[in-house]
Amino acid sequence: MFRIDVEKPHWIKNDGEDDPNDFCLHGQVFTKIGDERFTYDATISAAGLYLLRTLTANHIIHDGQAMLPCCGHTMYAHEDLLSVDISGCPNGIDWSVTHENGKVKLITEASKVTFVNFDDYRDEVYLFTDKIEAFYDKSSPKNSSEVDAISRDGYIAFWNEWHIRRSKASLR
Questions:
Q1: Residues 6 or more apart from 51 whose CB is under 8 A from it?
Q2: Number of structural domains found in the chain
Q3: Contact 13, 22 (CB under 8 A)
């Protein structure tokens, strides 16, 4: 009832080629929620973190960034470098995610409701986010030491939050 996958992950800078100065990964995202299907070119690094957040917290449609954001211009680290806010534009595809009695309730922009077993939902989120992390791992290291402090700290906090959320969710 819920599927999400990415094809053609790429960097925007440097004409899509591997770029140590591009911190945000983009790609074509295919999503299936119930009988609805979406295809969207999204900032998949931000989308992955947003999905990881939904494993332990609710996300209400149009309350903040879209689940599949068009862009994520800047990452702002929280002071402890353990979480990050990502600024972007208002464009994207969004849906609500709420937790109810061991299930995840998904509500699309068309107000269609789909219930998914939490374990199935978590496994699908893991498949998606693991693909993203694997792409980063096989790409050249990022030049976080050669950028301004906001960008450097945002990138560090992004991965800190990602790994904390990935490990917390797996303990559930």
A1: 4, 67, 125, 128, 129
A2: 1
A3: yes
pTM greater than 0.85: yes
Q: What is the pLDDT of residue 170?
A: 52
- CA 135, CA 138: separation in Å to the nearest integer? 5
What pLDDT sits at residue 89? 87
54 and 48 Cβ atoms separated by less than 8 Å:
no
Under 8 Å between Cβ of 96 and 66: no
Tell the residue number behind the tokens 């699908």, with chain if given.
124
User: Residue 40 is part of which domain span?
Assistant: 2-171
Quote the distance between the C-alpha of residue 9 and its chain's center. Answer: 13
Burial of 27 (0-12, 13-18, 19+ CB in 10 A): buried
The encoded tokens of residue 93 equal 């595809």
> Position 7: which residue type?
E
Cα separation, 75 vs 50, in Å, equals 13
